[in-house]
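Hi X.,

You mentioned you wanted examples for the new student's onboarding notes, showing what a folding record looks like when two proteins sit in one file. Here is a clean example. The first protein comes first, with its sequence line followed by its structure tokens.
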Amino acid sequence: MAVWLQYSLVVVVVVVVVVVVVVVVVVVVVVVVVVVVVVVKVVVVVVVVVVVVVVVVVVVVAVVVEVGLVP
């Protein structure tokens, strides 16, 4: 009986450790995915803003040169 109890305790400990490791891995993966999604969103917003600013500057410069305000 004592040997069976020892083995069952070992099995319980192993199962608990495996469950904890799996939960930690899942949490880490979820956190990494969330961080990557947030970073990608921020990068996309920054790229869009930069493109819009560049287009506006190019259009303004083209209009100013076309109108002849710049010698």
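Then the second protein repeats the pattern, sequence line and then tokens:
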Amino acid sequence: MIDRARALDVAYRELLMAMQHATTLYEVADVVARHARTVLGADGASVTDVRGAEYVYRAVAGSPVPVIGAPHPLAGSFTGDAVTAGEPRVFRLAESDDGSRARAEADGIASGLVAPIIVAGVVVGTVGATAATEDAFDEDDLRTLSGFAAFLAVALGFLERRKHPAVVREALPMPPADRAAALSTGMARMSLDTLEGAARALASSQLDPHQHSLAELVMRTLLVLRAMLGVDQN
């Protein structure tokens, strides 16, 4: 049995370290995929870019192992459903349409999660987790995955502040003017506020002292991130 609090503790520490030293978003994405799989007890986890009517895998951990960089149509896919809705989704094989069910069965997937990476109201990517067993995930898992997605949204802003324009051009398939607006201080604040809300919920809902310590760690991490990004609390 995975000790989620301890796994999240390690994940947030490594994500903060990766964000401080990364030169591309995909270095952070690799850490997210690896830890999302561990924390959720998933068989596989992934991070994608959304580019127009397609999505592209940029980081994967576990199995199945999709081809990095290969485009896939959003239409008729569970990832596409989450992107269109702009909200996290739980995938259940029994509730999926024929096309999604056929693809999932071919890959040995019986259940999954997808959380959109949202920048200034635009879905620019997703974080996903999959399992070979049905009903492997619940709403708590979905909230946890959404936290990882929010961290990646923050990472985009942080890399922009570190003056890596090539990274942002590659990571965000938008015109330059739209991209600049997407990486505004307001975007960073919204993403940080999402993480802060998750940390406060964790602190108020868990009685285990270690989980309270985790919540405190996340809050301290957020203070560091706010300072890095020059973003004040609302």
